[in-house]
Amino acid sequence: MFPTPIAKASPWVQTSYKIMLPVALFIWLLPLIGIAITSIRPASDLAAGNYFGMPSSFAGVENYSSVFKNSNIGWYIINSFRVTIPTVIGAVGLSCLTGFALAVYRFRGNLVVFFLFVAGNFVPFQILAIPVRDLTTQLGLYNTTTGLVLFHIAFQTGFCTLFMRNFIKALPFALIESARVEGVSEWKIFSRIVLPLMRPAIAALAVLIFTFIWNDYFWATVMAQSVDVRPVTAGMNELKGQYKVAWELISAAAIVAALPPVAMFFLMQKHFIAGLTLGATKG
Amino acid sequence: MAATPQAGFWKRNQRSLAPWLFLAPGLLVFMIYVIIPIFQSIWISFYDWDGLGPKTWAGLDNYRNLLDDDSFYMSLKNNLIWLVLYMLAVPAGLGVALFLNQTVAGIRLYKSLFFFPFVISQVVVGLIFSWFYAPGFGLLPHIFKILTGHEIAVLAEAKYATYGIIAAGLWPQIAYCMILYLTGLNNINPEQVEAARMDNAKGIYMLWHIIIPQLRPATFIAVVVTVIGALRSFDLISIMTVGGPFGSSRVLSYFMYEQALSEYGTAMGYGAAIAVVLFAIMLVFITLFIVRMLSQERTA
Fold first, then answer.
1. Which range, A171-175, B11-15, B256-260, is most confident?
2. Fewer Cβ close by (within 10 Å): the C or N end of chain A?
3. How far, in Å, are A2, A4, A21, A24 from residue A16 at the CA level?
4. What is the location of CATH 1.10.3720.10 in chain B?
5. Residue A225 is assigned to a structural domain of this protein
6. What does CATH list as the number for B77-251?
7. Could you say which residues from 15 to 34 on chain B have a Cβ atom under 8 Å away from some Cβ of chain A?
8. What pLDDT score was predicted for residue B2?
């Protein structure tokens, strides 16, 4: 293990490490802690210049309920779910199929298709934006949840395919060979043999894509206009304009907007990190 | 199985048709929404178009105009600054990972909390840092005032705005690199480390000659995601400065948005040309990445 385990160091070093940990964490999360505290401050604190001290009273309930009552954030959150959940299902579903195809079969064009998915995944959004917005408008889906979902599914399929293909490649191929010898159809090999083994990959991708899509801001801005479509990221920008310097309200709204992916992360931490660090160990 | 001719055909060709049938739905949507639009954008960049009316052929005019546009150079320069400074996330992430790669009580929670900034959206990160920098009541100007006696409004000054935004962007990016390195460190060959220790290797020497070479896969991914992240920077700029003051914090992605996508943006051809330039820059990195992956595939 590197660095040398601290347990082998002198007690003095061990103690100072244990003190440094929370201090470093506090500094690292200082901006976040600041905004969390601001979100429970009464407005009078900010007016009186009490920005960093203890809040004079707990106004969390007031601030958070005010945000929900006086802004559209409730709608925005619902919209975000309506975009995020179908995208997760669609992109993960499609990439189970594509990943399987690219991992199991040797055929001409396999690598070309694979690298098409990989490369497409890295292009800047701006080069897609004008044609995608036009296409969506032509389909009559501009400023609809469906329009956003369709694009997100398509784009995320690139990353998901990369992920799924590498995951399936690492499975024991003998399993598939022996099924073929027994005359099991290709579809059944996929659905009965490989798919059940893909559960961890599906879980990892689902949390990752949930976070990516929830946090998407660019497409939310470009493809959604009205209150009943706009996801919370784009909505936040609007709230910032509405609240101007009422930082206790902006902070509360920011915390609310950040909460779902954070909850997802803490609930599914193992899968999340497994997904994110794919490839960080081999190659 | 029934011996109809159709079933016979399927049976004979199942193995060669199956991959394409599995690929079809995913590949189709990916072509429609990702691959084809790239070419459409390149096509649009040769036209003069307001997005609604007819397109008029403009040849290379849009590109010529770019070369005369100060905003373009400003954006390009900022992209470069982003690219260079964002790279700090890689060594910084390694540093944090080394700091946290211990087994003491509660370390798992510490690792998760250090990773936290990556999970929240850039919009929220942007808001947090806008507050952090805000003159009059933000934490940073406050600290500056104590240290130097006067405040600095980071985001309101043309010379500092881009750096202020990059610092905000580094926060989640360092977290990302950290988690990659923590996984990498977890998979280091302990025998090699022990053997090196027997030979009295330690500290920086050990890190440089034994550890970092073993972390190469992690470093590669960290560099890739950081480059992509730097060139994709858009959210933070939009939230924190809207490209200002006086366009000083624009990058190509934001400049393109202003020209072609925002409320007042109607210069589709010009916007597409900016996007093509950004795409060309990205393509250099995409190619490097693919070449490396390809050589891995060959050896695998």
1. B256-260
2. N
3. 19, 15, 9, 12
4. 77-251
5. yes
6. 1.10.3720.10
7. 15-16, 18-20, 22-23, 25-27, 29-30, 32-34
8. 47
